[in-house]
Structures are given as C-alpha cells and as structure tokens.
Design brief:
By secondary structure, the chain is α/β, with parallel strands linked by helices. It contains 5 helices and 7 strands; from the N terminus they run βααβαβαβββαβ. The chain is 27% helix and 19% strand.
C-alpha cells in the first residue's frame, strides 16, 4: 500500500524497483565483489535521494527494502511479484489513478545526480545504458497499455512497444544516467 493519504501523489512520480539488498546484484556476487549488499544499498540511496523534489515510490517485496525506503523519505508499494517486469507493471497500474506520468529508474545508477530535475517530453522517454541496449530510465504517461520488457535489449524492445501503441518516443543515449552497476568493472568505469 502507498504510504500516503493523498488522493493524488503528484503529476510526475518516480518509481524505483528494488530487490532485497541481501540478494541484489547477483552478477557482482558471482564475480566475487566484496560488500555487495552495502554497494547495492549505497547505490539505491543515491538514486532515491537524487530524485527529489519528485515524489518517489519504491516498489519492493522485502521488509529490509521497505525500511530503507521509508527511512529515505520514499513511499512504499509492496509488490506481490518477484520479477522486474511484473513488479514495474504492478506499480504502473497502481499509480495510474494518482499521477499523470511515471518515471521508472533503476536503483543501481552510478551518477544519479539531477534525476529529480528531469523534465521528460510529453511522449515516452527511454534513457539507455552506456551501451545503448538496456533501459536505465523509462518515463511515460499513465493510462497506456504499455508492456514492460526489461532484460536483454530492453531499449529496443521498449521502442518497439511505443511503436506498437503508436505513441511518440525519444531515445536518449548520452545521459550520465547510462552508467549502472552490474559487474565489478562498472564500479570504476568512467
């Protein structure tokens, strides 16, 4: 449930889907990186705090993430789904009646500064990862029957989804938000 009694959260709401910090960043764990839970929490803290002044809703399924979100001033939406696409779809549907636009931001961005000042166009905005294949930030109006396609080649799949719905979109490939952390080299790559 949303931690708010307001009928309307705001015109533009940021959704940050987060897994438990104890299981997040599996590729870092497999690669033997140290203190992965702490890294995941530090990255998420930067993202949530840099989304201000926009309202932030953390969609999660675990108590530790709920405590983290509330401690950082975010609203919480508990998802009954474990998959990223399903959790984001759930949040998008739940928030639709309470706002005009939802921006989904991954919680592992290395340079989250300025997220709260992001002014997307009236269309769908797809901000890719530095390789141009993943979707690190996705902003769209509410009320669409949009199918989320996170995973391999999500940027292309999200543009195809916008085309399927006949909704204009923009793809941004040169954003500082293109730097996310998946493998140990991402912790130091410029």
């Amino acid at each position: 449930m949303l931690k708010t009694h307001l009928e309307r959260i705001g015109e533009h709401v940021v959704v940050v889907p987060l897994r438990s910090f104890h299981t997040a960043k599996s590729r870092l764990r497999v690669a033997g990186a140290a203190q992965v839970s702490l890294i995941a929490e530090m990255l998420a803290t930067g993202v949530v705090r840099n989304c201000a002044p926009l309202p932030v809703v953390v969609v999660c399924e675990h108590d530790d993430v709920q405590r983290f979100a509330l401690a950082n001033g975010a609203c919480v939406l508990r998802s009954p789904h474990t998959g990223l696409n399903e959790a984001v779809s759930f949040a998008y549907e739940q928030l639709g009646p309470h706002c005009d636009r939802v921006t989904i931001v991954h919680g592992d961005l290395r340079q989250p500064e300025g997220l709260g000042l992001f002014e997307p166009g009236r269309t769908i905005s797809i901000i890719t990862d530095r390789d141009g294949t993943g979707t690190n930030v996705l902003s769209l109006p509410t009320g669409l029957e949009f199918q989320f396609h996170y995973g391999p080649h999500s940027a292309l799949r999200h543009t195809e989804e916008a085309a399927r719905l006949d909704v204009d979109f923009e793809t941004i490939t040169d954003s500082p938000w293109g730097f996310d952390v998946d493998v140990p080299a991402d912790l130091s790559t410029n």
